[in-house]
Design brief:
The protein has 133 residues and is mostly helical. It contains six helices and no strands. InterPro entries: DUF6691.
């Protein structure tokens, strides 16, 4: 059941990305172009995600346990370390340069382009490097 729920969550996430147009890197790059032809679409998508999470988290945490698990798995660390900050910085730089973050990149695989392929290869190489360091 856990795998089925993970698949449904991923499918819902991917559909949300596709419907909102966030699989198009031009949207992200347009959002970052504040001095040019600025596209505020990403701000509304992120705002909708924050509101949805805010409400959904509070509703879910009222339950004694998740629907398909025995306990909630919540992070316990609250500190900021170099690995977290460095990873966040690399994520932001990669997103800003390519217009893709991992979710939209995987959702866009069916229409793969050379820049998307380069981003996916760089992401996988980054995963391997992060595991070694």
């Amino acid at each position: 059941m856990r795998s089925v729920m993970a698949y449904i969550a991923g499918l819902l996430f991917g559909l949300g990305l596709a419907i909102s147009g966030m699989t198009d890197p031009a949207r992200v790059l347009g959002f970052l172009d504040v001095a040019g032809d600025w596209d505020p679409t990403l701000m509304f998508v992120l705002g909708g995600a924050v509101v949805t999470h805010f409400v959904g988290y509070r509703l879910a945490m009222r339950r004694p346990h998740p629907l398909f698990a025995s306990a909630f798995q919540l992070p316990t660390r609250r500190d900021l370390d170099g690995r977290l900050l460095g990873g966040a910085a690399l994520f932001g730089v990669g997103w800003g340069l390519s217009g893709y973050c991992p979710g939209p990149a995987f959702a866009s695989v069916s229409g793969i382009t050379l820049p998307l392929a380069a981003m996916l290869v760089a992401m996988v190489v980054g995963w391997f490097i992060a595991r070694r360091v």
